[in-house]
Amino acid sequence: GEIKLLKHRESNRIRVLMRQEKTLKLLVNHFLDPRIVLTPNVGNEKSWVWVAFDFSEGKLEETTFALRFGTVDFAKEFKAAFEAGQEEMKKLMAGLDSSEGAKEADEAAEAIEKLGVKDEAAPAEAAAATEEESK
To answer: Most C-beta atoms within 10 A of its C-beta, which of 21, 27, 57, 58?
Structure first.
């Protein structure tokens, strides 16, 4: 099958997705966690092995993956893209991906601080209070 690194348009989180070639069944579906370590498969320069929390079966479970490429160059290209995505995710998780996002968060926090709760008595209670005050 074909493996893809997909970046969400709004959250910018990167996900690893792979479907089986003929049936299109999900084989790999996990976020590109910066803690994932790609290791070469023993005795084969064209493959990588890693462990991740996968969601391809509909529930989150720790899974070991092994991916083999047609050439050594494709394997190296995949590793470079995988690690570049991990660096991007590391920045995103640390909140360093954009100063604009931090500014928006600060503005939202200030707006929330300015919010207040107006204490209003129920109409019947307000009328009763007004009558007692006039006596």
So the answer is: 27
